[in-house]
Design a protein that fits this description.
CATH class: Mainly Beta
Number of domains: 1
Number of strands: 14
Helix content: 25-40%
Bound molecules: fe (ii) ion
Strand content: 15-25%
Order of helices and strands: HEHEHHEEEEHEEHHEHEEHEEEHH
Structural class: alpha+beta
Distance between the termini: 34 Å
Strand order of the largest sheet: 1-12-7-14-3-2
Largest sheet: 6 strands, antiparallel
Radius of gyration: 19 Å
Shape: globular
CATH topology: Jelly Rolls
CATH architecture: Sandwich
CATH superfamily: q2cbj1_9rhob like domain
Number of helices: 11
């Protein structure tokens, strides 16, 4: 995949760019293997079949040098892979019984993610400036459903410059609206605020000193939702606010992240040591999440 200068300019301005038709959909390696893994596994799968990985890596690798020079970011030449599955048959809204300070009061069981900046990669490497994400739909029934929604960086700077500056290079943030059935949770978290249903908040999941802050905009009114098809790629910086736009169709996508230069490689032993170090020396919020990861690896 080779990006035009217009593509790079869009990526610089918005923080993301939709590249259309980089390969014919029937060129993709057989995805039956990954489909089997999905039916037997949870929503995020890290074990991507080798032939699919090398097919997509061949698309990503030619963009490295231009990404570094156009975006002025410091990337490694490593790949981090995962697949995300949306299952429309499962529930997208379940109210948690007595949600704690760190938890979301509402959870989805179908793989959909509400507005956020990714957590795991930020807890480990604390650098979402120098991380680039290549997102490929692998199967998808229709282009206008099962997409990602994103908040363009240039628009964010116009409508809420405080938030735009706060999220620069960041991860480990959620963005949620106060609803009639979640207002009690918000009252416990934002004790000094006068809360109203319909207010939007950034939920700070990294720094211990603050619960977060109120947004000056409604992400649902500012979002852009590219219509992605199999054969397309969405390239995004890791500090672009995003979510699953809808979970109406069965959809599988593979994500290839290029992590920052100089991070410890994602080898099992090193990975475990890094998690332990961050639990001991990081913030309490980071430790809370990383202890959960530590239990499952
Ligand atoms: Fe995400």
């Amino acid at each position: 995949m080779i990006l035009s200068q217009a593509n790079w300019n869009t990526l610089k301005r918005q923080g993301f760019c939709h590249i259309k038709s980089i390969f014919p959909w029937n060129d993709l390696p057989d995805c039956r293997e990954i489909s089997k893994l999905i039916s037997a596994s949870s929503r995020t799968i890290e074990d991507i079949p080798g032939d699919l990985r090398s097919f997509l890596a061949n698309e990503v690798a030619p963009t490295f040098d231009a990404a570094i020079s156009n975006l002025k970011i410091n990337l490694s030449k490593d790949f981090e892979w995962c697949a995300i599955h949306i299952d429309p048959k499962k529930s997208d809204r379940i109210m948690r019984q007595d949600p704690g300070y760190h938890s979301d009061p509402i959870i989805a069981l179908n793989g959909a993610m509400d507005w956020h900046l990714d957590h795991g990669s930020y807890y480990l490497h604390r650098d979402h400036t120098n991380r680039l994400i290549f997102y490929f739909p692998i199967f998808k029934e229709t282009k206008d459903k099962g997409n990602l929604a994103l908040i363009p960086k240039d628009e964010l700077m116009k409508i809420d410059p405080f938030t735009a500056r706060k999220v620069e290079g960041r991860g480990a943030l959620r963005f949620r609206v106060v609803e009639p059935d979640t207002i009690e949770w918000f009252k416990r978290r934002f004790q000094t605020h006068n809360l109203t249903v319909g207010d939007w908040f950034a939920i700070e999941d990294y720094y211990d000193e603050t619960p977060g802050w109120q947004l000056c905009f409604d992400p649902e009114k500012e979002k852009i939702v590219p219509d992605l098809e199999v054969g397309d790629c969405l390239i995004m910086r890791a500090d672009v606010i995003h979510k699953t736009d809808d979970s109406d169709i069965n959809r599988l996508s593979v994500r290839c992240d290029i992590p920052p230069y100089n991070v410890l490689r994602n080898i099992n032993f090193v990975h475990r040591m890094l998690i332990k170090m961050r639990i001991i020396f990081g913030t309490k919020k980071a430790a809370y999440y990383l202890k959960k990861i530590e239990k499952v690896i």
